[in-house]
Amino acid sequence: MLNHLQGYAQDADQEQMEMEMARTTVYKVKLYNIATDEVVISRRMATYEGAAKMGGWPVEGTGHVIDLADLEPGEEWTPRDFDPTKT
């Protein structure tokens, strides 16, 4: 789920809340590979909605909270080989 709060900060607490709201949780994604007849882990991470758009499903327990700016523009997944520990 993409979370974003529009507007401007009126105090430090509100500014912190806005910064936190511009984040989302992404997960490793399992995909079915028709060519190999196997389930594989995508090289991208995605939100629940992104995983569904990719035709896959999120791997529970692999969630990482990231900045919305780390997602591909206009999408609900990260670039290939994204490392959430380096953000």
Largest sheet data:
4 strands, antiparallel
Strand content: 25-35%
**Tally of DSSP helical segments:** 2
Per the principal axes of the C-alpha atoms, what is the gross shape? elongated
User: Which spans of ≥5 residues are poorly predicted at pLDDT below 50?
Assistant: none
What's the number of extended β-strand segments?
4
Run of helices and strands: HEEHEE
Rg value: 15 Å
How would you state the average pLDDT, rounded?
87
Number of domains: 1
> N-to-C terminal Cα separation, in Å?
19 Å
Oligomer type: single chain
Classify the helix fraction into a percent range.
Answer: 10-25%
Derived structural class: alpha+beta
Task: Describe this protein's structure.
The protein is of the alpha+beta class and 87 residues long. It has one domain (26-86). Helices cover 18% and strands 30% of the residues. The chain contains two helices and four strands, in the order αββαββ. Strands 1, 2, 3 and 4 form a four-stranded antiparallel β-sheet that branches. Strand 1 and strand 2 (38-46) form a beta hairpin. The radius of gyration is 15 Å and the shape is elongated. The two termini are 19 Å apart. The model has no long low-confidence stretch (mean pLDDT 87).
